Automatic annotation (TrEMBL):
It catalyses: tRNA(Phe) + L-phenylalanine + ATP = L-phenylalanyl-tRNA(Phe) + AMP + diphosphate + H(+). One of its GO terms (molecular function) is phenylalanine-tRNA ligase activity. HAMAP family: Phe_tRNA_synth_beta1 (MF_00283). The keyword Chloroplast does not apply. Residues 403-478 form the B5 domain. GO terms for cellular component: phenylalanine-tRNA ligase complex. GO terms for biological process: phenylalanyl-tRNA aminoacylation. Mg(2+) binds at D456, D462, E465, E466. This is Phenylalanine--tRNA ligase beta subunit.
Length: 796
């Protein structure tokens, strides 16, 4: 936002301040001045009087002028402007004048005629070319007849000005109004704010009606002013607009822009005589094309807020007026509009129409002070009377305007508690006084009435922010926060995850990290934990990364495919990551192995990845987690399972809940992912890590010897041998410490459909040496138990 110091000086006295120091003070209170520059360039300039102007003898476009540059001092200047003439007051750049960018005026001879300076146009003073009229660019600028010869023309024209470029934060959009910014500057300088005097005028009988048929317009007001004259604005008004980055048009348009600069409220004006019905209706629902003030045709949609006149489009609310009601050189009677419209709705309309005008920005950023709307209407009427010769002013017609007073309380203790300071109550009172905040003080608590233009203050923390920025951020001591000492360590869950990562790396697996997003065609593969739909991205970059995965195995298979296609056959990976479905988020651990796991080529030893390797990883993890073998079991996957090989895969269950899967990838899935002989594991860590486990118990190594017995049991091929081993240990009265399978035989001498499982049993008593009869008794009990539960008998 560009702010003219000359214009700001109208509202708070700053002409005794050094611009650089003032900029630093404004920045110190949170309104960052990002840059500053002079409005116009030029030194060693004077107002001159053209006493004589004749044609150059050797040129058809140059003129030789005799110019009085100071009282009684006449010099000759050669000028090529087509509008230069005798009797004019002009801007003269004397020799040595620096007009910026290295352009320095020098004494010279032009086609044989001496020239001691330059008569300037407005365009040559460094003003923004976009804001100048064609006359200002094509010819010299002619001053009025009262201009004092010899004085500084920039001073006389009000162009000797410094412009501050202030970067407003989103919460301080109120400072888009010069009056609001004046309160900030007045507070930091401890000065008063001088607001313009507003005279309320208006006679009844305008016959104007206003109606609001949408909740998107809290207030709408209109005021009729008759007998205006459209003409060029006075110099001070044009200069004020130029300094603020706005192009002067005529006195009517310039007044509306000036009031917007002053108050932050956009103004729109209608030609009263172009209205058949003197009625303004604010509503939505238009779906048609309309020609607006810029002469372009725009397509309106039902959500756009429209100020309707004569059942048509009178104005796209807060964006741009319609061409049918515009002010022109013949306008005599004007209706002034001041309204509050919904910012988000305006933002959508302005962006769609590509009409992000200055007015729309004020609505979008919430720079309005709706409580001041009626005064703004009167301010416009006063200026029209002063600058446009308005003859008749009528009463304002508006919707009901009710603004509830807003109060926020804050105590000295709250201020110091949040800031870590020791600011006294009287110092806080001085700050609120400097900001012109009204308040009631009881003990050390301030009940502050929030000014209507400060929409950013809603709670005590906002008032504390006001205190600290006016108190000075540099005045706050640097202190360390008070906090209790804590031990930096992992949580129990984090510790278990870390332990598993270290364990798997020690077992020779490589950790990988893959995308959590996958394609809809792969998302259901290998999923055994999620029963809800996957989460779909609202704006995916592509179909292949459009949903969240529900299993990590598919991602690991893609990594294995990448390696196998590059002749890397031995791949052993794991990943610990999160899987998702609607409303569900699970931590998973997945392992994938293929090729040779460990081997010694010089001894011709090679161990290929298989089901038992994957199962061994599971058993090792469970052992380290403290989950005993008796607490989980393996159950073969369904025969029609589409993800896992039905003969070489099993679910891992804890109390009938599936917490994992181990086995080989189904051949059809291997074909789909273009991999070969891959064995996988996937565990639901969200369930496993929350299982309660007993504390690790340490006990001495047994002093008494153990006894080993081998047995061969014949049982149905469908019986899980591991379940038989668990039963043996459980039924032995704790005498059998280990039951290890060392052979499985199917074939000759074994009945069809049966298998012979050879198991090594280790007997041991921690308190004594076992006797033969105790071992035999335990064996009889074991054989009865396995025969009863599994139909397993000793092989004959």
């Amino acid at each position: 936002m560009e702010v003219s110091l000359n214009l700001l000086n109208k509202y708070v006295k700053i002409d005794d301040q050094d611009p650089k120091e003032l900029a630093d003070k404004i920045t110190s209170i949170g309104l960052e001045v990002e840059g500053m520059h002079s409005l116009a360039n030029g030194n060693n300039m004077t107002i001159g009087y053209v006493k004589e102007c004749i044609d150059h003898p050797d040129s058809d476009h140059l003129h030789v002028c005799q110019v009085e540059v100071r009282p009684g001092e006449v010099t000759q200047i050669v000028c090529g402007a087509p509008n230069v003439a005798a009797g004019q007051k002009v801007i003269v750049a004397n020799p040595g004048c620096d007009l910026g960018e290295g352009f320095v005026i020098k004494q010279s001879t032009i086609r044989g005629q001496e020239s001691n300076g330059m008569i300037c146009s407005m365009a040559e003073l460094g003003l923004d070319q976009r804001l100048l009229s064609p006359e200002d660019k094509d010819g010299i600028h002619v001053l009025d007849e009262n201009a004092p010869v010899g004085e500084d023309p920039l001073e006389y024209l009000g162009l000797k000005d410094t412009i501050l470029d202030i970067g407003l934060t989103p919460n301080r959009s109120d400072c888009m109004a010069l009056t609001s910014l004046a309160y900030e500057v007045a507070a930091v300088l401890k000065r008063d704010v001088n607001l313009p005097e507003i005279k309320e005028k208006g006679t009844p009988g305008s016959n104007i009606e206003v109606k609001v048929e949408t909740e998107l317009c809290p207030f709408f007001g209109a005021k009729l002013v008759k007998g205006v004259t459209t003409k060029e604005s006075p110099a001070w008004l044009k200069t004020a607009l130029l300094a603020s980055g706005i192009k002067p048009i005529n006195n009517i348009v310039d007044i509306s822009n000036y009031v917007m600069l002053e108050t932050g409220q956009p103004i729109h004006m209608y030609d009263y005589d172009k209205l058949t019905k003197k009625e303004f209706v604010v509503k939505t629902g238009f779906e048609e094309k309309a020609i607006l003030l810029d002469g372009e045709e725009y397509k309106l949609e039902p959500n756009d807020i429209i100020v309707s006149t004569d059942n048509g489009v009178g104005c796209v609310a807060g964006v741009m007026g319609a061409d049918s009601t515009k002010i022109d050189e013949n306008t005599q009677n004007i209706v002034i509009e001041v309204a509050t419209f919904d910012g988000p709705s305006l933002r959508e309309t302005a962006r769609r129409l590509n009409l992000l005008t200055d007015a729309s920005q004020h609505y979008i950023k919430g720079a309005l002070n709706t409580a001041n709307s009626l005064n703004i209407l009167e301010r416009c009427a006063n200026l029209l009377e002063e600058l446009a010769d308005a003859k008749e002013i009528y009463e304002t017609v508006s919707t009901t305007l009710y603004i509830e007073d807003k109060y926020v309380s804050v105590s000295t203790q709250q201020v110091n508690g949040l800031l870590g300071t020791n600011i006294q109550t009287n110092e806080i009172a001085e700050i609120f006084n400097s900001l012109k905040f009204k308040y009631e003080l009881k003990e050390d608590t301030f009940n502050v009435k929030i000014p209507t233009y400060r929409n950013d203050i809603t709670m005590a923390a906002d008032l504390i922010e006001e205190v600290v920025r006016m108190y000075g951020f540099d005045n706050i001591p640097s202190t360390l926060p008070e906090m209790s000492m804590t031990i930096g360590k992992r949580t129990e869950i984090q510790e278990k995850k870390h332990m598993m990562k270290v364990l798997l790396k020690d077992l020779g697996l490589h950790e990988t990290l893959t995308y959590s997003l996958t394609s809809p065609s792969l998302v259901h593969d290998f999923n055994i934990f999620h029963d809800q739909e996957p989460v779909k991205l609202a704006m995916p970059l592509g179909e292949e990364r459009s949903v969240t995965r529900q299993s990590i195995i598919g991602s690991l298979l893609q990594v294995i495919n990448y390696n196998q296609s590059r002749n890397m056959k031995d791949v052993h990976l794991y990943e610990l990551s999160t899987t998702y479905s609607k409303g569900v988020e699970l931590q998973n651990l997945a392992i994938a192995c293929t090729g040779e796991y460990h081997g010694l080529s010089f001894k011709q030893i090679s161990y290929k990845a298989d089901y038992y390797l994957a199962k061994g990883f599971v058993e090792t993890i469970f052992e380290r987690l403290g989950i005993n073998e008796s607490r989980y079991r393996l159950e073969r996957v369904e025969s029609d399972n589409e993800s896992f090989h039905p003969g070489r895969s099993a679910y891992i269950k804890v109390q009938n809940e599936v917490v994992g899967v181990v086995g080989q990838v189904h051949p059809l899935m291997e074909k789909k992912y273009d991999v070969k002989d891959v064995y996988v594991v996937e565990l639901n860590l969200s369930a496993l890590l929350n299982i309660k486990t007993g504390k690790v118990k340490y006990q001495p190594i047994p002093q008494y010897p153990s006894v080993s017995r081998d047995i061969a049991l014949v049982m149905d091929e469908s019986v899980p041998a591991n379940d038989v081993c668990q039963k043996i240990i459980k039924s032995s009265n704790k005498l059998v410490k280990f039951a290890n399978i060392f052979d499985v035989y199917v074939g000759e001498h074994v009945e069809a459909g049966k298998k012979s499982v050879a198991i090594n049993l280790t007997f041991q008593d921690e308190k004594k040496t076992l006797e033969e009869k105790e071992i035999n008794a335990a064996m009889e009990k074991i054989l009865k138990a396995v025969e009863k539960d599994f139909g397993a008998v000793l092989r004959g």
